Amino acid sequence: MSAAKTMRQPFGLQLSANAFLAIWCLIAAFPLFWIMVMSFKVPVDAFASNPLEVVFGPETRAAGKGLSILDIVVGIAALFYIARLAVNWLPGMVARFSPGGQIWAGWIIGALAFGIAVVVFLFGLLPPVLGAVNGVLGPLGQPIIGLTTEHYSAVWVENAFYRNFLNSMLVTTGVVVISLTVGTLAGYGLARSGSDLAFWLLIIALIFRALPHSVLVAGYLPVFINSAEFLRPILGDAAPTLYGQPYAVIAVLVSINQPFTIWMLRSFFQNIPTELDEAARVDGCTHFQAFRWVIMPVMWPGVITTGLFSFLLAYNDLLVTSLLLDAQNQTMVPAIAGYFNRETTTTDQVEAVAAAVSIIAPLFLLVMVFQRQIVSGLTAGAVKG
Amino acid sequence: MKFKTFAAFVGPSVFLMLLFIAAPLISVFVQGFYLTQPIYETVEVETCTPGFPTQTCVTETKTQPVIGEDGKIITETKYVGLESYRNLLEPDRALTALGNWDWGSLLTIDFWKALRFTLTFTLVTLPLVIGLGLAIAVVVNNTARLIRGPVIFVSLLPFIITPVIGALSIRWLFIGDGIMTAFLEWWLQRDIAMFAQGWTIELLMMFYRVWHVAPFAFVVFYAGLQTVNQDTLESAVIDGASRWERLRYVVIPHLMPLIIFIALIHLMDTYRAFEEIVGFSSQAYRISLQWLTYDLLVPDDSGNRAISRASASAMLTMIGIVILLVPLLRRTWRDHRGGSH
Q1: Domains in chain B, please, with CATH?
Q2: What is the pTM of this model?
Q3: Model confidence over A240-251: pLDDT tens digits?
Q4: Which of B179, B234, B271 is nearest residue A54 as measured by Cβ atoms?
Q5: How distant is the Cα of A4 from the closest Cα of chain B, in angstroms?
Q6: Domains of chain A with CATH codes
Q7: How far apart are CA B31 and CA A217, in angstroms?
Q8: What's the ipTM?
Q9: 3-state DSSP: chain A helix, strand, coil percent, rounded to 5?
Q10: Contact predicate B309/B296, CB 8 Å
Q11: B40-49: which pairs have CB atoms within 8 A and are 24 or more residues apart?
């Protein structure tokens, strides 16, 4: 008891500690929160020097685009019920309609369908209905906060950002699936073999992890651009030019991330007691059967965590994708680099902001859902030394 | 595990790493010594313009690339030895500048400029990241359990989001008369343009980097703090150690391996700084080594990529990484021998 009492902090220290924490949280979240606010305003408001003008958007309001009290109330209620549905109703539906044992596939489809339904409801159905009601209400229906989604529609519809989005999805899905398949095999092998060879492989992987990616891309570029000539003797006239191919980029990203993936998966495999595979071996399994039927079922947390980091590495990559993909197959992140470089008018700039918010919104959701896995992934390699 | 089984398990991964990491390294090393250029020929061209009473004709010699039968420019690749490296390092100019103690003219050479920035950037942000991460971890560890989850959530955001967009979000706060610039101007009572000179951009880039990486350090240190031996802490209290002394003599020594881990990861990652340059569009003032290679790889106005010089720059960047890693590798090797034999 006495120790607990002495460990308790004096009031002043507690106060300053909490103040420090509050300031840190503010600094951490503010820039992201702010670009989200900016993306919904007309350019004059978005880049106004008075923060209140950015938040309330008088110019946006003057243009007749905004939220009335009714909109805000209905919007908050809708968001609340959507959140409740997602928490209470969605898991049950996913569990009921998933094909036997494949619950993760059910979740992917369920989450996608739910997300699309929410977007259609919030942006397709609600605005016209509320607009009609607002017209009837008179003064209550006047907008009080300026808000416009015109930049989002400009980015996604007019500038066809959905194409970049699809390319991003193609690349990240490919990278995650292949990385995990190749990586779990290698991670298991490395975790269960105490040989010097395994040690050296890990050390070489560590060196590879430290390489700047531009070094590797300098090696790929000339080969990829001329690959049709190199590959013609083997593949005949069907030899592809690898430059600009999403598949080539998937292979490159998988390989570049391989060192990181196998280190992380190895440390997760090491947490699984060897008695488990020994028991399976005694029962007559081969190494591969033990891996597939005994180890993998208890390995899911590690696989999900590593998958998350593979996803982030592929999704956030700028250097490799911007050098190895051409304009038709551009993914989202290099595409946005094109946006703000050509910023000629302030409208272009706000469109770049809207595109940026579109890119980070999925990541935001990802952190919300997988916070625990991300933390465990960050500490996996570190805490155990 | 028998060797054959082991090979079957790690085979695909090793194959990918050999094909896409080891092979490109070798090819980059070789490319640095060769230069591929279009073959030029000198031709005499007679251009005539209508005139009176006769046409005015001018004959001039022009240098133009040779066009092959398939309509493409013919190129040739020749061994140039260290020329690409010389073009990059410009040793004569660099030595003269060094001899005169003239930093300004040394830093007009792209490579030295990039090296200077990368090193300063790495070394200045390192202590800030570790200090901030440790401070947040200690404070979070001492607050009520209820708010830890939300704090970790908010802290993860700068780390998880796309680096370029993180940099952009800070840039948009300061650009032109953005709210932060307006605030600073009001506070300091003077005119401020954050993107008009190098050092303010450099400050913003460092701020961004600390903002981006401190959460990672925080999460790792926070996990480490959970394993601090409570008995040691209590006996320190009984021995009359103050809060600061407990932190200094019990907690930090316990976290030392993690501090070294974070420092190493941070050194490796900051040495590869690239996204900041793109996000802050700072190439006119500040460039990093990785950006230099990137820039050489991007086609120039006439569509040529300076592959040879990019390879040379890539190899020079590599040397830095190797120097950085040698102490780590020596330590790991000692641990391995001590551990298994």
Answers
A1: 103-340 (1.10.3720.10)
A2: 0.84
A3: 777 777 888 888
A4: B179
A5: 9
A6: 32-154 (no CATH), 159-383 (1.10.3720.10)
A7: 13
A8: 0.83
A9: 85, 0, 15
A10: yes
A11: B40/B64, B40/B65, B40/B66, B41/B65, B41/B66
